[in-house]
Every structure is written in C-alpha cells, then in structure tokens.
Amino acid sequence: VNLKGIFPPVTTPFDSAGDVAYEKLKENLVSWNKTGLAGYTILGSTGESIYLMEEEKLRIVEAARDAIPNTKHMMVGVIYESTRHAVDFVKAAARVGADSVLVGAPNYYKERMKDEVLFAHYTRVAESATIPVLLYNVPQFTGVSLSPSLVARLSLHENIIGIKDSSGHIIGLSEIVRLAQPGFQVLTGSAPALFPSLCLGAVGAVLAIACAAPEATVELYNIFVGGDLARARELQFRLAPAMFMTTTYGIAGLKAAMDMMGYYGGDCRLPLLPLNESAKVEIKAVFRKAGLL
Amino acid sequence: VNLKGIFPPVTTPFDSAGDVAYEKLKENLVSWNKTGLAGYTILGSTGESIYLMEEEKLRIVEAARDAIPNTKHMMVGVIYESTRHAVDFVKAAARVGADSVLVGAPNYYKERMKDEVLFAHYTRVAESATIPVLLYNVPQFTGVSLSPSLVARLSLHENIIGIKDSSGHIIGLSEIVRLAQPGFQVLTGSAPALFPSLCLGAVGAVLAIACAAPEATVELYNIFVGGDLARARELQFRLAPAMFMTTTYGIAGLKAAMDMMGYYGGDCRLPLLPLNESAKVEIKAVFRKAGLL
Amino acid sequence: VNLKGIFPPVTTPFDSAGDVAYEKLKENLVSWNKTGLAGYTILGSTGESIYLMEEEKLRIVEAARDAIPNTKHMMVGVIYESTRHAVDFVKAAARVGADSVLVGAPNYYKERMKDEVLFAHYTRVAESATIPVLLYNVPQFTGVSLSPSLVARLSLHENIIGIKDSSGHIIGLSEIVRLAQPGFQVLTGSAPALFPSLCLGAVGAVLAIACAAPEATVELYNIFVGGDLARARELQFRLAPAMFMTTTYGIAGLKAAMDMMGYYGGDCRLPLLPLNESAKVEIKAVFRKAGLL
Amino acid sequence: VNLKGIFPPVTTPFDSAGDVAYEKLKENLVSWNKTGLAGYTILGSTGESIYLMEEEKLRIVEAARDAIPNTKHMMVGVIYESTRHAVDFVKAAARVGADSVLVGAPNYYKERMKDEVLFAHYTRVAESATIPVLLYNVPQFTGVSLSPSLVARLSLHENIIGIKDSSGHIIGLSEIVRLAQPGFQVLTGSAPALFPSLCLGAVGAVLAIACAAPEATVELYNIFVGGDLARARELQFRLAPAMFMTTTYGIAGLKAAMDMMGYYGGDCRLPLLPLNESAKVEIKAVFRKAGLL
Q1: Between A and D, how many CB-CB pairs are < 8 A?
Q2: I need a surface site. Which of A199, A270, B156, D221 has the fewest CB within 10 A?
Q3: Of C5, C4, C6, C24, whose CA–CA distance to C14 is shortest?
Q4: Do A50 and B82 touch (CB under 8 A)?
Q5: Annotated catalytic, C34?
Q6: Is the overall model pTM greater than 0.80, yes or no?
Q7: Four-CA torsion A47, A52, A55, A59, nearest 10 degrees
Q8: Radius of gyration of the CA atoms of chain B, in A
Q9: What whole-number distance in Å separates Cα of residue C29 and Cα of residue D137?
Q10: Averaged over C266-279, what is the pLDDT?
Q11: Residue C246 reports pLDDT greater than 90
Q12: Mutation to test the D interface, candidates C78, C270, C273, C275, most D Cβ within 10 Å
C-alpha cells in the first residue's frame, strides 16, 4: 500500500438540525476527486469522529466509498478506548470498503498508557485486522504520546504499515523515520510541519488545510518531490498563516474556510459552537493574502 | 437531594471472557449496602465507562438499581464527547432509575473547550435532564479543567446541584466552595484530598478506596463530622498509603485490593493489562499496614 | 527554633533610580514590628533576591537585622544555583545576624535535578551551616519540585528544621507532614492554601499578603490556633480575593497594595515593569471589599 | 556579523578542587581552532555559566579571547535575571573582547514574563550594548519561551542580529525564520534539530556535541551547504544517538565524551554530580557506533 501524497482528513457535514448530511459529504468528495489528492482520511479527528454515533459512522464510510474511486486510497479513523471496540470497528470498516485504518491511541487513563499497554493494544488490533493499520499519534487531543521507540517496535508488525504523526514534534517524527523498519510510511498530520517533515523522509501528509485548499497543498508536495527545496519552503511560508488559521479556530474555522472555497463546510456538532463573524472575516483575509482566494 | 457522605465509584466486574459480570456487580452492591456508604456512583471513570458498549451501560445501571435500595443514592456517570449523546444518555439513565447524573466534560478538542463551550454544553444537558446534574472535573483524565468561575456560573442553574472534583487541586476546590451558589454540593473525588476538602466545606466524597475499604472510609468521614479533627487527620494519614496505592496501580490495583477485601474485583477490560504478582504483594502489604486487612 | 506563626517575605524597596532604599526597608520593618508577626523572611522570592547584586544582599540583611528585634525571627533566603555559592552565602548571612536560612533548590538544568542531586546539595549546605536550614519549594518559579519523599529524607538531618512549601499543592504538603521526621516544621508559602495547610499540620506561613495586611493574616492564624475552624475558614474566604490579587499582579501588585496600606512599596527592579493604573484601582477595590482598607 | 557555521558552547573546565582550570580551557580552544568551527560560545548554558562567580566569568572570557584568533567569532553568554545586571555584563564582556553576546531571557517570575516585559528587557540591553546581541531561547532551562512574534518584533532592532533557539521546537524555529526581519540570523541550539533547521533556513548552530565531535558536526553542516540533502540527513541519523547521549546525561555526559575524544572534560561543578562508570561505558559505545571514536 502506497501512502505517498496528500490526504485531507475529511470533515463530516451536518445539516441545520445537526444530523449528518451524507449527500454533502459525497459532493465534497466528488469535487476533491478532481484534484491531485492521493486519497482521504474518513472519520479522523477533523471528521468529528468522537461526536458520531456508531450507526452514523458506518453510513459515512459507506457514503464516502460510494464517492471515492478505487484509484484513491480511503483510510478510515478508528478512535476508541477499548481494544474490543477498536477490533470490532476495524472489521466493520473493512467490510464497507476501507483500504486502511488509522487507529487512535487509547488515552483516558493517561498514566496507565505505558508502552507495554499501547504495544499490546496495537498488536491485537493489527492481528485481527484484514486491512493495513496505521498508528495515529495526536497527543494534543489524547494527552498520550506514541514514543519513537514504541513506534519502531510496532513497525516490525507486518500489518502496521505507517503512522500519522500530528504531534507537530518534528524531532519525534525524525526519530520515527530513523528507528522504524525500512518501508514504514510516515505521514505528518501537522501542516506547519509539512516541509521539514518531507525533508526528513515523511512520504505524505494528512492535513486539514487540504480540505479547503487541496490544490495548493498538493502543489507544495509536488514541488518538494520535484526537488526544488527553495520553492517548496517558500510556498510553505506563504501558506503558513492559512495553516495556522485552521488550527487557531479548529474545525469550525476549517469548515468556514471550506464554505469560502466552494465546498460544503457548515457547522460542527455541539459542544463545538458556530464560528462568529469576525473570525470568518479574519480567515477570509488570511486565505486571500495566501493567494488561496 | 442530599449528597453527604461517602460514595464508591463502582467498578465494573468482567468475567474471564471480558464480558460484564452483572451478577458479580450485584453481589458487590449487596455487600456494600451493609456499610455506611451514602450511595453509589455507577459508570464513572473507575467503572471503566469509556470501555463499555452502549447496551452494556444501560444493563449495568438496571442491574445496579436492582441491588441498590431506594435509601441509597444512585449517581450515574455520563461520559460523552457530544452534547446530543450526553443528553440522550441522561434520559436513558433516568428511565432506568438513576437518582442523579455525573456529567463529564467534553475534552477531545482540548484547546476548543473554552468556558463558553463548556457552559453551553452543561446548560443544555441540565435543561434537558429530569434528574439532577453534577459536574465532573477530572483533568488528569480529560486534560480539561473546569475553572472555579465556570463552576460558580453553572451552580446558578437550578438543576446543577453539585460537583465531583477529582483534580486533587485543593485550592481549586476551595475556590469552588467559596464562589458557588450556597447549597451547591461539592464532593471530592481524590482520596488523598479527603480530610482537607472536608475542612474546606466539601459535603462528601466519591472515592475509589471506598470500593475496597468502605468502612474505614466512612469512619474517616464520620469522625470528621463528629468534630474530632485530630483523629480524622490521623486516620487520613494512616490510610494514605492505601489511597495512593490504588492510584499508583489504577483500576487494576483497586480491583486487586477488592479481591483481597472479599469483594469481586477481577481484571479490567483491555487495553488495561492484568496486574502482575509483585504489585499484588505490595498492595496487600500496604493494606495490611494500614490496618485494612 | 520555633517557626510558629506568620512571616512576611519582605519586599526590597527601590528608589526612583532603581537602587535599594535601605531606610525604607527599615521603616517598613519598624511598622511591622508592632504587629503580631512571628518574624521575617529577607531576600526571598518576593524580595526580588535574584535581581540583587551580592553586595546589596548583605547590606539588606544587615539593615534588616538592625530593625528586627531579637524576639522576632529573621530567616534569610539563599537562592543560588551552585552549591559553593549557597554555602558561602549561608556563612555570610549567619555572620550578619540571620537566625535561619531558606535555601532554594538549584534548578537551571531541570532534567538533571534528580533527588540524589538535590539531596547531596542540601546535605552539603546543611553540614556547612552554623544556623538552621529550611528547604524552599517553589516549583512555579524554579520548575523543580521537592518531592515529599526527598523532603522526608532531608528532614532526618539535624540541621534541616523545616520547609517553606509555596507550591500550593496541598496534597504534597500533606504528604510532607505525614512523612517527615516528627518536629520538622512545615510552613506554607501559599496564602490561598493557608487554612487547609494549618488543618493538615503546618505550623506557620510565609505569605506575601502579610507584607500589606499583616494584622488580618495574623488574625486568621490566631483564630485557627484558637480552635474556631468555621471562623478561620470564613476569614480565609473573605481574604481570598486579596490573596489572589497579589499573585495575579506579582510583586508589583503587592508593592502597590503596600503603598495603599501605609507601607513603602514602590516599583520593582527591571525587567519587572511598573503596574498600570487600572490594576491599582482593581487592587484597591479588592482590598476594600475584603475589609482591609 | 556572519554567524554561518558551527559553534560549540564551550564547557568550563574545573580542576579537582572545583576551581576553574583556565589553562585547560585554552588547550581545548587551541585544539578546536584546528577544525572548521566558525567560532565559539563562551559562558553559555553548557558552560555552567550559572555556577560561576562574577570574577570567574570575566577571567574565562579573557582566557578564551587569548586562545581564539580574531578569525573565529567569540559569542559570550549573558545569563542574568535583572536588566541592569545584564547591561553591566554586556559592557564588561565587550571590554574583554567579545564579538557578540547571547542574552538569556529573565525567567524566575515565569508568569510575569509577558512579551512586553521581555521586549523591554531585550530592547534596553540591545540599546546599551556596543556589540551585537543575539536572543537566547532555551525554555527547557528557563521555563520561558520567546514566541516567534516577539522575536520578529525584536529582530527589527538594528543591534539584535539573531537568535540561538535551543527549544527543539522546529515549527517555532520555522516561524521565526518566516516572520523575522530579512537578514536576522537563526541558529539552532538543538543537535537533533540540526538538519531540519538548516532546511528551514537556519544559518548555523551552537551545539554541545561540537565540543566533543567538532569535525563530524562541521562535516554535516558542510554537506548540507554543499547541497547533498540525502547525505546530510544520513549523517544526521548516524550522529543522532551521540547527540541524544549528551542530552541524556547532561554536561557531565558531554564532558565524559570530551575526555574520550582527547579534549579536557573533567567534572562539573556541584550540585551536578560526577557521571558513574556505566554511563561512561554507554557513551563510549554510542560514540563508537556513530563512527566518532
């Protein structure tokens, strides 16, 4: 499985009643399909996975698969606390067409999540999965960090093929590249870390900004792959304010940017509150200045 | 609703296949009913709530209600990320006999959980609930802290009657007592904080140690209420190593202690691993030295 | 040596040129001498010790001793990174009349400050000192915390007689009281923690608020010692906003409050900037509401 | 002033009595002068600056200048809490031959160190200095971080020519490069961050590993400047274990490595304890495996 390139962590559209707008999801995918995106991450953190009911999650994966051609990779997020829940959902996701799963770290009992606990958890999930597993490191949300040495050990498992590292801790990503099994695929999940992560050997990226500005994100990746580091860095710096904007305002900010860029963004599910107007104005200004609008 | 006294955050027993052992739960409750415990917290953090499937949760509450007499308060944990999920579960819990609900803070998108977001979330849950709501502050698990000023604002809501503060941050608890609406009931969820919290005006406590050693915990509370501070502090200090032991080893440690004390403990659900033997020996020694065994 | 009671961590007055105003220091002490304060801490964190030159420090201790009667205890802060520097200054302080020294933890190389390093440091300082040594735990400034087990080990040294714990972490203070050698004297350095710390067995306190409001602080202590817990807690709650005000605005805020209360406060040394007027107005309002003005 | 290239943060040698061994310092410099190092940082964190007496510091700078040819840049660390102390020492350092100063952030009162405080401090130091000023960001020691926006503002000052960023937070370094005045020189102070920092536009580095292995560190830099990214990254990965080793064991570990590599390392000043033998064996093994020994 080849994970080179840019993947948007697909947002979940809601209608005005707060229910999932499956058709809007498909429409976004149809638009994105026309770009150079390598594939999609469904039900990730940016997809508000943890706000969705079980039945909604499977319908979303099914709807997404409908709209995603087989030439594009569909990675599905698996964010659960219990091992059995994660194992069950991986199976269900595989049944409805997932190409791989991105498995979050259990984290509620933070002090208990020692390397041996996480190692056992991921090993068990990987063993029961019929599709490839990616590790998902996002300590800013989980309060738990997958150490490079743990990742290196897990990279030896034949069904664990890569990691999405959203920590933004680039020395950690560097250590993962250095220590992991050759062929283990490292993706960054932090847009401000994109350029240096590629320099260090990351093969791709799962980036929220790619939901709103897929072309520019893919362009940066392609310039880098083409070998023009100076131009790649320059584009990274030009896009940086837009990249930070979506993190400053969270998913609501990203969805507002998507609305501006011609996709369906809409509101988040509660408790996430709608974005106020001044934030939208600021986001528009930043996107305009970055040459995205 | 009177929340004075000691509440154990009831552990969820599992059988050797990892399935919920409902009968063991009832047996534990029958034993605890004979002590001076004021009531119970079902499906709290210590109950491995986040490892349970929806259908298991409701069966647990029903089973617990069966075994808990109406003279004992049954508080039910509501630990969900989305507002709609929390609202739905509060209704379900009320239907199956909960006397109150203990509502966890949404926390996945930590940076987004500003006071206004949490205020709106809790207000909406409280408005839709037909039974009283308690706030649940446990930043060591959630990475999100309910500030005293937020708690004070929420305490004005007539259906928000109290808080379980498990932070162990006693100055914060003191500020909550000082700033909240008169009559707002503060419970500590930190055993090492029990004595000073009572001095500061906490009316009760939800303590893991009370699952294994209910009598000693109730005794400490009763000595305090009886006005003998020196003896209360002395007992606090005598029990302290046992209190820390259950936090050092987590729920697995608590369950091992329960097994030693004649209750059904058993193993935790994965990813939590079984306790090794040396830890059990250490826990036994500490409980013995504290005069509990 | 008896450390019962309230000690202000004496501020260092500066004149308009930023030089030490030794006479103002003496005048403040003369005023404070008329209150029920048990003694003084000179050159502590609140005394801007780390902003003073070596020669200024000794002159300040000498000036203070001039103004402090032998019936009041003079504790002198020793805040240095190197062991030899601390040892030297303890000797110098003893020569100019210090009754005890309050020795800060070395902290620059935070990761290196393991218990064995701190144990060796404090042991060496205590062995070379001709006056009693107190440990000083103030992790909010040092980024290094003295663990209760380390403090307990150090409490066995005959020349280490106590600790000022400014962490505000009351469970930690409780553990120190529980684990330390009997007779080891625990003082809290956190005003919001005063009442619960006394309940737990602290014998006294070193509190910035006592520079501005010595009588009220001493009154709280005396009420507690007199056994009226309800009134002590009530006074704690009444004073709380004033206690937090001085932490919100730092030493500049404390000095502004001192100016309002008839002492000499003045400005801090740079880089600490002068307080703006709106902060002064706020502090005045809070002190008035607390019945201090 | 051109800061391109590799600078070792020169260790301060002590003799067996714990006194500064000035001759050993000179001998080390004479050896280093034969390598491709661009210059030296004297009295930095690795130089145990905070353990030195004032008179020792100036003698060290004088001794270093004696041994450093004018073709090599001598940067001198200025690590003080008070603005006036920093201003005074900058003048003294200039008098004894410093080419630039590396000015640490005041940090004791961490919560007070707002951007406006740090801005005023650095501006005042820069205005009074007759030699160029570099900012020094090392939050792991100070607990205070210089934000990219603060650095960008300070970069407008004509006498503030660069920054040593030892945070290891590469996104922060990236933001500094992006936001600072063109020509502002960014040096990384984190060896594991060297390669990605150079990719992002850092012009050089101040690295502890360069005290023990100057040739290899300079080689990495030269390979990067020569444009062979793949080889530069490969060398970065080969050196990484040695780079982490010196951080794992601190200055004592670095000095042990220096002793192995033919320089004078020796012990640190107390409270830093001597390294045990097993650590030395481990360091030797790591240096050997990295091809340095």
Answers
A1: 55
A2: B156
A3: C24
A4: yes
A5: no
A6: yes
A7: -20
A8: 18
A9: 40
A10: 97
A11: no
A12: C270
